[in-house]
Amino acid sequence: WSDLQKYRFLASETAKKMFGKYNFQRYFQDKSPEPLVFAPFSHGHQEEPCYDQIHGFDELSRLLIAALNDYNETFASMELVLFEDALRHVAKITRVIRNSSGHCLLVGVGGSGRQSLSRLGAFV
Question: Exposure string (b/e) for 106-121, b if CB count within 10 Å is 16 or more?
């Protein structure tokens, strides 16, 4: 936990320095921090892309489950369990591949969901 605490401290201090008039404490607290997630599908995957903050995992989960259901109707069915880390990763993958020449290297053990989350991110 010391690495995570050090990261949160450094991120919090940098946010205070760069954006002094905003209160970022709720995003960097030790006990249940509020998620700070931005994605280009903040109004839904079928709407015009709008890069904005998604407030909470409930909203992010709702958006991505709707996208997953649409994906499953169009292509071969993917049965995914979208837990909090998976939700964050799909948002990151989508943000990266929406940029021109955007690409990322996904690292993990076999069966960890890299390909499935990438497919969902590309579909969104």
Answer: eeeeeeebbebbbbbb
Residue with tokens 């499953």: 72
Q: What is the pTM of this model?
A: 0.80
Dihedral sign, Cα of residue 66, residue 68, residue 69, residue 70: positive
Tell me which long-range contacts 109-114 makes (C-beta under 8 A, separation of at least 24): 113/80, 113/86
How many CB atoms neighbour CB 88 within 10 A? 16
Q: Which residue has the higher pLDDT, 27 or 65?
A: 65
CA quadruple 36, 86, 62, 50: dihedral, nearest 10: 50
Average pLDDT for the chain: 89
Ordered DSSP codes for the chain: -HHHHHHHHHHHHHHHHHSTTS--HHHH-SSSPPP-EEETBTT-TTSPPB-EEE-SHHHHHHHHHHHHHHHHHHSS-------HHHHHHHHHHHHHHHSTT--------TTSSHHHHHHHHHH-
Q: Which amino acid is at 44?
A: G
Q: Largest Cα–Cα distance of the chain, in whole Å?
A: 48
